[in-house]
Amino acid sequence: MNAIDFNSHKNSIIRIFYQKDVVGIGFLVAEKYALTCAHVVGEALLISSSIANIPDGEIQVDFPLANSTEKIKATVVYWHPTSDLNSDLIIEDIAVLKLEYLPSQAQPTRLILSENISKHPFKVFGCPQGVAFGVWATGVLSEQNAKQWVQLEDTKVTGYAIAKGFSGSPVWDEQLQGVVGMVVAADTKLEAAKASFMIPNQTLVKAWQYL
Q: What's the pLDDT band for 192 if we cut at 50, 70, 90?
């Protein structure tokens, strides 16, 4: 995929709703196809994210950074459910949505496959509780855990940390100028930890062969 700048990348980001509440984020990776987390879909459809079969039902999304808050219908076309907390399953909590149509400014983002991303600064968009219009969190990429998820370190005292409402968001690597993964979990049990995780593109590509 050709290089795109950060402003173009913003036009790939979708908010995912349950009624009027934003339950998570997703991002356009191909014409009309977007990635998000299975647990975000679960919240949008009020179902368990560990069900085996692709869930039915329509999901409402919009493109808040592409000058479009018009709600667009989306359906789930690919599904890797969540597993239990101690599972060593590598490919989980991934869903692909197909959107009915796209607003004029929407465009897929640029995905980068790179093994060497440790210590790179990142930016990520999310809608924590009470901030439906969204905020940006920044930090530094760390190392992989046994699940091959990459830890996202929050290195600052001020600003927003990644929390609930960031799940499914694309992680923009400032050094490589592209997306290197998708936010999957924030460690809410340890308030002081200020760490969260992303599923790297290497795993996303294995999960969905069309990437």
A: low
- Whole-model pTM: value is 0.93
The pLDDT of residue 187 is: 61
3-state secondary structure of 10: helix
Give the number of residues written for the chain. 211
pLDDT computed for residue 83 by the predictor: 85
Burial pattern 70-79, b for ≥16 Cβ within 10 A else e, equals eebebebebb
Reported as a single tens digit per residue, the pLDDT across 73-104 is 999 999 999 987 667 778 999 999 999 999 99
Rounded distance between C-alpha atoms, residue 37 and residue 143, angstroms: 21
Give the per-residue SS3 of 33-86.
EEEECHHHHHHHHCCCCCCCCCCCCCEEEEECCCCEEEEEEEEEEEEECCCCCC
3: tokens are 């290089």
Q: Which of 133, 109, 122, 99 is nearest to 15 (CA)?
A: 133
Q: What are 113's two structure tokens?
A: 């496959």
Backbone angles phi, psi at 3, to 5 degrees: -65, 140
